[in-house]
Amino acid sequence: MNEEEKKSIKERILEKIKSNQVKMRPKIYFLLKTVFIIAGVIFFLFLTAFLVSFIHFHLRVSGLWYLPSFGLKVFGIYLRSLPWLLILSILFLILILEILSKKFSFVWKRPLIYSLLAIVFIIILGTFIFEKISIHQRLLLEAQTGKMPPPFSPIYQRFGMPKFKDFHRGMVEKITEDGFLLRELSGEQFNVIPSKEIKFLFEKIKEGDSVVVVGKREDSKILAIAIRKIDDRFRIFERRIHGFPGLK
Amino acid sequence: MREESIQKTDEEIAKLVQSGKVDFFEILIERYEEKIKRYSRKFLSNHRDIEDVVQEVFLKAYKNIQSFDPKKKFSSWLYRIAHNELVNLLKKKSHFSFIDLDVFLPYLSHDEHLEEKIDRQKMQKIIDQCLDKLEPKYREPIILYFFENLSYQEISDILEIPVSTVGVRIKRAKEKIKNFCQKLGYKYE
Question: Please, what is the Cα angle at A133 between A129 and A134, to 5 degrees?
């Protein structure tokens, strides 16, 4: 046993304190730590609400939002087309929020389900506010007009104008004999030919309508197995031509 | 210093240390060294590991003493540091579960005073025989309650879990102990 081991725990601790090997942290350190945690919680709540509203915007713009109404036959396409990376990022952010908020006694004194519900409620509220101020329409337009800085612009463009294999969203440009001409957000044009089963739906569609189409693509043809007219609440095509009204 | 501190509470001494009278920290070590050692012994068997944990607990307590609120109990704050140290050590040794569903849902509060009717000494003896069979998440509240004589509220502050969860864990731990003891042939009443 060496000299150090012979000493009592108390002696060893006091020796470390007296020789300044261990220093007392100042009060300001703990104050700043609390401030950083609060700021972190606010930032992550803001970021999560922003991402949730972005997913909602992406689903609406891409037309994916309307896919579940086509029933089980397109459910696989719907699942494959969801922005899973963003969804997983949101779940990860909620986990971080839960860990950060557990630093406060008013959170851990109650069962976890309450804080989780409170976090989800605040995120939904934030999402609602972001939608009310049309933030993503404005940002997408900025990306399209080149006003957004380079690292963010391609991301916005990619999510704002997505491309899917068997799923298309666009505007009916011209009614033809066997179907209609569809112009996608990217500017590409396709000849949509509806299958016999959905021929009756095709009769209700007129030029200028926003539609979502599900079907296999063969060169410039889409053999549609499902078509749905949608309410273009974001006026995507109109904005692409005239810009977003109210955005200076 | 010694005469001066005899009448003082832990919280008053901690306040003196916070104000710069660092020599008073010695009193806190004297008051809690054995308790923290006893607490650590319930999780660790290696003498060297126990000594290291105790030393680390007091060094961390000194380092972070400015974060202690003297209106709260010093013992709960110090046990919280010990809990964190032990959890970190057990995680390294892979004896600690990260998933904890007990704190997720609300429970009906379990009556703490019912436990007082049971002879604590008798209970300590029974628990001690089967303690090593319990998972740490059940072992900890039962040690704090039966061996360190802390209340549900204090245990809740140390483990940072709701009071109702403390009650549920103690209840479940006793049920598990009862099963273990019966299997081993010990008498549990």
Answer: 115
Sign of the dihedral through C-alpha A219, A223, A224, A225: negative
Is residue A203 classed exposed, middle or buried when 0-12, 13-18 and 19+ CB atoms within 10 A define those classes? exposed
Tell me which residues of chain B have a C-beta less than 8 Å from any C-beta of chain A: 22, 25-26, 29-30, 33, 51, 54-55, 58-59, 62-67, 103-107, 156, 160-165
Contact (Cβ atoms closer than 8 angstroms) between residue B89 and residue A47: no
Q: A-chain residues within 8 Å CB-CB of B65?
A: 24
- Contact (Cβ atoms closer than 8 angstroms) between residue B155 and residue B141: yes
Residue with the bigger pLDDT between B67 and A224: it is B67
Per-chain mean pLDDT for chain B = 84
CA dist A163 and A92 (Å) reads: 26
User: Distance between CA atoms of A46 and A53, rounded to whole angstroms?
Assistant: 11
Q: Which domain holds residue A168?
A: 163-242
Mean per-residue pLDDT of chain A: 83
Where is A211: in which H helix or E strand?
strand A210-218
Helix (H, G, I), strand (E, B) or coil at A184: strand
Mention the CATH class of domain B2-92: mainly alpha
Q: Give the DSSP letter string of B108-129.
A: PPP-THHHHTS-HHHHHHHHHH
Closest chain A residue to B165, measured at CA: A111
Spatial distance between the Cα atoms of B139 and B97, rounded to a whole number of angstroms: 13
Query: Of A130, A157, A184, which closes a domain?
Result: A157
Residue range A153-192, pLDDT digits in tens: 777 766 655 566 778 888 888 888 888 999 887 778 899 9
Domain closes at, from A157, A186, A215:
A157
Query: pLDDT band for position B184 (50/70/90)?
Result: low
Instruction: Compare all CA atoms of chain A with the CA of B101 and give the residue at the minimum distance.
Output: A112
| ipTM score for this prediction | 0.79
Q: Band the pLDDT of B100: cuts 50, 70, 90.
A: low
Q: Which amino acid is at A4?
A: E
CATH of region B101-184, choose from 3.30.70.20, 3.40.50.300, 3.50.30.10, 1.10.10.10: 1.10.10.10
